[in-house]
Amino acid sequence: MKIFIDTAKLNEIKEALSWGIVDGVTTNPSLIKQAIDALGKGVDMENYIGEILRAAGEGHDVSLEVTGLTEEKMFEQAKRLHDRFNSIAGNAVIKIPANPSLNKTSLQDYDGLKVTRRLSEEGIRVNYTLVMTLEQALLGAKAGARYVSPFAGRIDDYLRERAGISFGKGDYYEASGMGEGEEILNDEGIVSGVDLVDNIVQVFREYQFETEVIAASVRNPRQVRELALTGVDIATIPFDVLKRMTSHEKTYEGIVRFTADIVPEYASLFE
Ligand code: E4P
After folding, report:
1. pTM of the prediction?
2. What CATH number should be reported for the domain holding residue 75?
3. What residues flank ligand 1, with Cβ below 6 Å?
4. Does 191 score more than 90 pLDDT?
């Protein structure tokens, strides 16, 4: 499984890259906002994004999202992002929302697909994002997306919100779903975000799609474990979750014991 870091904070990206385990970066407008809020006003966005692409380097894709809500606007923005940034390290990928409509009945429903097809035909790689169903993922792959990003955590949020369960953003949600009384909570048969990813992975494997699946909206290390068990191609993980993945109480305890047990004979090997 490849690991992408899900942040627009350059310090987090650089730190995680220095661990030697990061294969790519994903951003979205909310993550850019968090980075800018942390840096304060006056950030030169063009330089900043350029630095992210340079830090990630060739072979480590960086997803940048459009903000337009129509096919033409998204196409124009995607071209602009690609033309400005892909020459830096050949690693710019354009995020296109599965459905750019601000309401449920708009015709813009289909613009995500149309623009994905157009961009893919021009050789511009698309990360088809905000995917909440297998059906959306399937259509994104058919439209030629390089990646599709199912939002595991947001599906867990949705199930809990609908059931009136209170929860914190990082709270673990059972991959096999949670029952409310007798009934297992589900969204059209999908019982958790991990279940959604698992379904997509199975179908993409069955049809040998070239599109890779990025499990997104990852909230805690246990969810990463369950996502890895689905065989998903990539998980994009926030920095704080990555940090938590490095440690365990017994690892700390073990180091304390080993350090205390170093005999001078063994220590002399390192002098
Ligand atoms: C990445 O591609 C997504 O935009 C991101 O994982 C969303 O995460 P969130 O649901 O925690 O905001």
Report:
1. 0.96
2. 3.20.20.70
3. 6, 26, 28, 129, 149, 151, 153-154, 216-217, 236
4. yes
